[in-house]
């Protein structure tokens, strides 16, 4: 697994973790075990994802993504996993953690995949299964809900799973927490630029490109080259 991230000054400004948790019911935050669970995605994975705990190479990019989201940094990440290395599991647990943390403050994540079925639907179902585990289910006030077949909601927070196939009806969505291109090597750059990139244009949302690199002409390869150039300039 390799990852690259570059940060830009965000229009929303920095947001510390306390700002998010200040909207949680005081009684729930008095539980020190609960505070630990929702304080760090690595702790959350180890303690709440019974039998599915992430490995260090998965937790590292998950922590960087969560930090960018919670502090409003608007960073862009390219994360490359080898096949069967747990890319989708890392994404599902990162989304579960963010939805649980944001259930009282709200926020929207958008996850694009090359097709809705099977790819986006499989990712949606994996997230629902992780949120249904005992510890996340206890944390989610009112439980996790599936709306209109493509949106997973926890309280005021949601993750929407959309197809990035040419001609798919994905316009008009907004991502203010996280915008993800999953299997980015199979998403056409022109589709991403026209349909998905504008979803985060006014929100400074963190953007993540996930996948495997098999050609220099793909969306993922393009983003990796862009981030590498940004790092050289810093």
Automatic annotation (TrEMBL):
Gene3D superfamilies: P-loop containing nucleotide triphosphate hydrolases. It comes from the Bacteria. InterPro entries: P-loop_NTPase. Residues 1-24 are annotated as: Disordered. This is Uncharacterized protein. It comes from uncultured Thermomicrobiales bacterium. The lineage of its organism: Bacteria, Pseudomonadati, Thermomicrobiota, Thermomicrobia, Thermomicrobiales.
């Amino acid at each position: 697994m390799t990852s690259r991230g570059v940060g830009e000054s965000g229009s929303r400004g920095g947001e510390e973790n306390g700002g998010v948790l200040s909207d949680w019911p005081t009684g729930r935050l008095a539980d020190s075990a609960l505070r630990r669970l929702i304080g760090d995605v690595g702790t959350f994975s180890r303690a709440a994802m019974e039998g599915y705990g992430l490995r260090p190479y998965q937790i590292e990019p998950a922590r960087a993504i969560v930090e960018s989201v919670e502090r409003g940094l608007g960073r862009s990440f390219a994360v490359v996993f080898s096949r069967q290395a747990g890319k989708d599991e890392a994404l599902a647990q990162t989304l579960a953690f963010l939805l649980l943390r944001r259930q009282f403050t709200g926020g929207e994540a958008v996850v694009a995949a090359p097709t809705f079925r099977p790819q986006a639907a499989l990712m949606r179902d994996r997230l629902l299964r992780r949120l249904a585990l005992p510890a996340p289910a206890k944390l989610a006030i009112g439980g996790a809900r599936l709306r209109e077949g493509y949106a997973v909601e926890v309280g005021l927070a949601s993750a929407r799973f959309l197809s990035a196939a040419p001609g798919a009806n994905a316009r008009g969505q907004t991502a203010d927490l996280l915008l993800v291109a999953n299997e980015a090597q199979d998403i056409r750059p022109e589709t991403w630029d026209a349909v998905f990139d504008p979803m985060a244009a006014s929100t400074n949302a963190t953007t993540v490109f996930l996948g495997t690199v098999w050609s220099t002409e793909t969306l993922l390869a393009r983003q990796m080259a862009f981030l590498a150039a940004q790092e050289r300039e810093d």
